[in-house]
Amino acid sequence: MGVVERSTPFLDLSKLTKLKDVVFGCTGSNVQRITMTLQTAESINLEQITIRSPTAFRKQIVESSYQEWQDLDRLLLRFWTSRSVRPKIWFKDEKEGCDLKHLVPRLLPELSRRGVVDLVECS
Amino acid sequence: MPPPLPPEMLDLIVGFLHDEPGALKACCLTSKSWVHRTRQHLFAHLEFSLESHVKLWEEIFPDPSNSPARYTRSLSIRMSRVVTPVGGSVGGWIRTFSGVIRLHVDMRGYDGGGTEASLASLHGLSPTLKSLHLAYGSSVISSEIFGLVCSFPLLEDLALFAVCNNSKLDGWNIPSTSPKFTGCLDLRIINGIRPAVRQLLEMSSGLHFSKISVSCLEEDIESMMDLVSECSDTLESLSIYYYLPGAGFLPPFVVGQYLTAAFGCSRTQHTFS
């Protein structure tokens, strides 16, 4: 797991023993917070992790958060291998900018390589 | 003459037409005995979005005892007429909807000329209300919002969408009873969720939400933690949407989602016109 800045405030999910489903709205700049929050998820009932991307990401944001995406990739892979939780990525197809659909193989390479991430286009 | 069909069969047949208002209206005119069973579907989901809708309703159904409002289960009011300046009064039309289970009120259009709004006319509107969605602006203060919320003892779902938050709590006393809060909580409040979460945490019966969806600022994390901890025994689904301070407004996708959740209806919803 990559080194994360502990100063970034994040949510502790460790007490949520019944948690089945967690959704994060991702703007591209809060990937680290998503990873840190997910690291605390201990519920054995967890069935679904969803990341929703509302708009295309700015290229600069993607470049600057590349390492954070790698951390998230490793964590999500761990959820898949240990608990069979298959992550779902919701994206909005954009003509301009970098939409998540085309970035996923680069940002989440291991999940993409193993084909264990679902991409869903939202209207 | 063949014997008439059992009433249960007629109910079933009419029930198949629940999303075909034209056919239901025709059935309603078939015989007096069909009026009740067709009105259950015709008036199940109502939306008032213009002043003229209310005026028309009051003209057609001046007598509350004959009003089909009692058939309404889902009521959506997207106008400011339901709210009044503090101390004012509103017509009794709204009070006839006493069987509503889902209530959606959009008060963002209210302009009291600097006077704060009163929601007293909605208090305890339906004793069986389970779902309350409120969209409001700065003229509706927090004590009005939570006074209204606490007037529904069986409330399970709560959605608050504030385009401009006014966290004043004038005259607010923590009520001795509070709703069940066992369903979904949806908070999308400009300037942060902290005041609303503080009010919710003061509810005497505690919070037992199974689903929470929140749009929050970075500084709201602590409030989110408190909220999540309070519901730790019951929470099954959590959605978090962060947005940046100074963005001026919630991201469009958040607003869109809220409006779909609050005012979109999977079943046919009839606008009264």
Summarize the structure.
The complex is a heterodimer of chains A (123) and B (273). Chain A is 38% helix and 15% strand. Chain A is an alpha/beta fold and 123 residues long.
Give the % helix of chain B: 25-40%
Radius of gyration of chain A: 14 Å
Strands side by side in the biggest sheet of chain A: 1-2-3-4
Determine the number of helices of chain A (DSSP H or I, runs of at least 4 residues): 5
Overall shape of chain B: it is globular
Order of helices and strands of chain A: EHEHHEHHE
Number of helices of chain B: 8
Kindly report the greatest chain-chain contact and the residue count on each side. A-B, 25 and 26 residues
For the largest beta-sheet of chain B, the strand count, sense and barrel status come to: 9 strands, parallel
- State which percent range the strand residues of chain B make up: 15-25%
Distance, first to last CA of chain B: 40 Å
Overall mean pLDDT of chain A stands at 82
Oligomeric state of the chains present here: heterodimer
Rounded average pLDDT of chain B:
82
Number of domains of chain B: 2
Largest sheet of chain A: 4 strands, parallel
Find the structural class of chain A using helix and strand composition: alpha/beta
String of helices and strands of chain B: HHHEHEEEEEHEEHEHEHE
Number of strands of chain B: 11
Can you characterise this structure?
The complex is a heterodimer of chains A (123) and B (273). Chain A has helices at residues 31-39, 59-64, 66-83, 100-107, 109-114; strands spanning 21-25, 48-52, 88-91, 118-121. Chain A is α/β, with parallel strands linked by helices and 123 residues long. Chain A has one domain (21-121). A four-stranded parallel sheet of chain A has the order 1-2-3-4, with no helix packed on it. In chain A, helix 1 (31-39) packs parallel to helix 3. The N and C termini of chain A lie far apart (34 Å). The model of chain A has no long low-confidence stretch (mean pLDDT 82). Chain B has 273 residues and is an alpha/beta fold. Chain B has two domains: 1-42; 44-271. Helix content of chain B is 28%, strand content 18%. Strand 1 (21-25) of chain A pairs parallel with strand 10 of chain B.
